[in-house]
Amino acid sequence: MLTNEFVEDRITSSRLLMHRLHIDLPLLLGLLMLAGVGLFVLYSASGQDDSMIIRQLIRLALAFVILIAVAQISPATLSFWSPWIYSIGLLLLIAVLVLGDIGKGAQRWLDIGIFRFQPSEIMKLAVPMMIARFLADTHLPPNRKRLLLGAILIALPALMVAKQPDLGTALLIASAGGFVLFLAGLSWRFIILSLVAIAASAPFVWNLLREYQQQRILTLLNPQNDPLGTGYHIIQSTIAIGSGGLYGKGWLNGTQSHLDFLPERNTDFIFAVFSEEFGFFGIMLLLLIYIFIISRCLVIAVQSQDTYSRLLAGSLALTFFVYLFVNIGMVSGLLPVVGVPLPLVSYGGTSIVTLMAAFGILMSIQTHRKLLAG
Amino acid sequence: MQRFSSLTIKDHIRESEIINKRILTSAIVAGILLLILLARLFQLQIIDVQHYSSLSENNRVSLLPIAPTRGLIYDRQGRLLAQNLPSYTLELIPEHIKNLKATLTTLRGLIRISDDEVKSFRKQLRRKRRFEGVPLRFRLSDAEVARVAVNQHRLPGVEIVAQLTRHYPMGSLASHAIGYVSRINEEELRHLDASEYSATTYIGKVGVEKSYEHLLHGEVGFQRVETNAQGRILRVLERTLPTPGKNLYLNIDARLQAIAEKGFKDNNGALVAIDPNNGDVLALVSMPTFDPNLFVNGIDSKTYKALSQSTRRPLFNRALRGQYPPGSTLKPFIGLAGLELDAIKPNETINCPGYYMLKNDDRHYRDWKKQGHGITNLRKAIVESCDVYFYNLALTLQIDRLHEYLTSFGLGRLTGIDIRGELPGLMPSRAWKRRVYHQPWFPGETLITGIGQGFTLATPLQLASITATLSDLGQRYQPQVVHAIQEPGTESLSIQTAIPSGNVPIAKIEHWHNIIDIMQDVVHSVHGTARGISHHLSYRIAGKTGTAQVFGVKQDEEYVAEDIAKKLRDHALFIGFAPADKPRIAVAAIVENGGGGGSVAAPIVRKVMDYYLLKSDVPPDANK
């Protein structure tokens, strides 16, 4: 009996330690698991490039540090700073548009002496924070004036990012903001009306898209149209996924990826490498990890104690799902190719940092609760 | 204020409910979307797995053909006539070359590279992949290979590649019989088995090389290789070795052939020697010859022009395709026809005044001997080659019987020799003339047919073949150039069997012996037209000379050879076989514009027979 009590005491104390460090253990475990799987796949996708793994490892470590740092900041403080972060982000976006560096044929990067970074990444967090703050200040559901203002606050950065042009990030920013509006009780009539409006404006938007963006959508409809050009990515990635079968070709044995048939295999198309090597069975396991993380985030949202936290946590959880859905959708040929990485698995810098910061916010929300029933 | 704050607290609970409801809705929608994704992945990985697996396999694995080694060609004695030698090609691998221009300049400083070669290199450069070698120069000499090799350290990406190239060690010897290989052209590509020839660069164009292509080529091999997206070969998964082509042994004896070719000196002409017992072609000469090695790697246009436009026509295979008036060489056959068809008796005579006249025709049909042969029987008519006797005989036989009898020997028909391209010659008849000229047959035409002139045409091969048939008492064989076929890597030969191609009907065998006996007198008697070759002859030759007119001599003109330009002079012919009693070799020779058959063509035939029948007595170099 004594031992049992002792063990329980130990568990409670370790929980308390985690709580004091503002870490949510289930979420942390889920993320670590995902990052581990990600490194495993990247090792294969990169052609067993050790230096790439080390760089990704460093990036992940840095991201976890940021996660823990962000988790220390209370939701109240976040809420207080939201308008400021949003404003700074917006200014930086304007700066990028005016004097941005040209990277990969698109203006996304801002070179500020020591390092280059994408202000659009900040907006992935700043927009939902701003909208959550903006709506939490008044009653829910928001009135029309609030909605309209909220929509403008979302549209402004989203359009600017889209103009860079970075359709994937613009989409993520818009959906992060949109999710806050949705969670705040946006009336179904309004949702349906705006969906109709989007559909109606589609031809107009079509003309606004760059030629390569139009091409990507056309390619989705019929990849065989241009098998060596724009359709090549989709054709090769569906071949990679399909040839994986139930159990896959085995780790390091994916021919599509190792023989260079699969483009962008370290970054946006890493899901195809995973599918080829681990098959449908492996995908189910991977999706389980994602579902676990997303569920945990939604639980945090539901358990949170104030409107700002609830809205923000819900939005971040759903945005994470959008990442997952858009990436897998595009790699498997369901959605047009927009530059959205597979979260925490794809090789790449800023998106991991941003994602981890978001999880930091979620942990902060979970661990700064006042333990009412304690 | 109080109202406001109480409302705020109330709202807080309501707001939580609103948001939580929405979170639930979102979770459900997200779940549905996940199911859609899973359905898509299920479709790709479970339902269509076969389809995508095969696509992936096709991406990865390609089939590379391996060219078989071409069969070798030997002569009857096993001397090599066609072989495969390594030849060196200079190749550049673009991805290893930093500065192409500098590399080219350096190379041109080392070896001779023409502008044309650079141009064709640049053309190919655009078509090839970066890691594939692009040929810049073919057939490097040993010295050039050495010069490049020494400088290899400062020429990264420059490689010398050895490959097998057809080579004819005897050069121009028997080139019309052996033929040559050359690059496959587009026309041939359309008819070839694409997979069998997928790795082959060369194909037989003429002669044995063409006609025995199916045996010489061999069977293509394959290797299954794994390639990456750029097409670079990463590893060989499986290899099926090619089956090399079969080796061929010809009936042609290279030394015999050389003796015959040398015998022509600077003359144009042809000679065919056949073993009458089986149709084996012992020599197949068409002069002048050409060097088949020139064609193997693509002949340059200047050399080709010189060959193809030369008035001596070295590329023309006279033995198979030269159709000449057989002239007097036909007389023994017409004489035999006369005996066999009971038109004459051996000792019946006619008077030869030096010309012949038809009724109701004041034209003089001349004899070559202006003063005439006087009283002439069959023996004298053949030995001294009396024309008037044969004018008379032809008229008695009439053209149709003449046609029928000579056709039974094979005149006017393909001999069926095993190399392609022979022409059938022409044995005229009434029906033929009506069909082609829409004209009746004139008696005068029968006369000149009787001395092998007029419409009658025969190839040297046909003349050799009918001579062989005569010597073998009517048994005909298809002439065969190839003697035996050998599986590569083995010693055993599969000898080609003789192919009989019919018999000439025999009325009385004495007639045949009689003609053969008379033909021996052509060589061995003092009046014989070929008596010049009988000197120190240790065996007996049965033969017949001939002179074929190249242009007609008008009624009151005389033919004076010296006055006529060489190309208008008569062709000299000789047919013969030996030993007369037990024939082992039958030969027909024609020397274009050579003048008299006895003095020009017969000596060549004698040399051929001497070598074949006596061998060591006449070393091949003794003819210089």
Strand content of chain A: under 5%
SSE order of chain A in H/E notation?
HHHHEEEHHHHHHHHHH
Low-confidence stretches of chain A: none
Oligomer: heterodimer
Structural class computed from helices and strand pairing of chain A: mainly alpha
The helix content of chain B, as a percent range, equals: 25-40%
Q: How many separate domains make up the residues of chain A?
A: 2
Give me the count of strands of chain A: 3
Give the averaged pLDDT of chain A, no decimals.
85
In angstroms, what is the radius of gyration of chain B?
A: 38 Å
Instruction: Tell me the count of domains of chain B.
Output: 3
Question: What structural class do you assign from the helix and strand content of chain B?
Answer: alpha+beta
| CATH class descriptor of the largest domain in chain B | Alpha Beta
Global mean pLDDT of chain B:
86
CATH level-four homologous superfamily name of the largest domain in chain B:
DD-peptidase/beta-lactamase superfamily
- Number of helical segments of chain B? 21
Task: Figure out the total of helices of chain A.
Answer: 14
Distance between the termini of chain B: 136 Å
Helix content of chain A: over 70%
What does this structure look like?
The complex is a heterodimer of chains A (374) and B (624). Chain A has 2 domains: 38-60 and 210-368, no CATH class; 73-195, no CATH class. The two termini of chain A are 23 Å apart. Chain A is built from 14 helices and 3 strands. With 374 residues, chain A is mainly α. Helices cover 72% and strands 3% of the residues of chain A. In chain A, strands 1-2-3 form a 3-stranded antiparallel beta sheet. Helices cover 38% and strands 20% of the residues of chain B. Chains A and B meet through helix 7, helix 10, helix 12 and helix 13 of A and helix 1 and helix 2 of B.
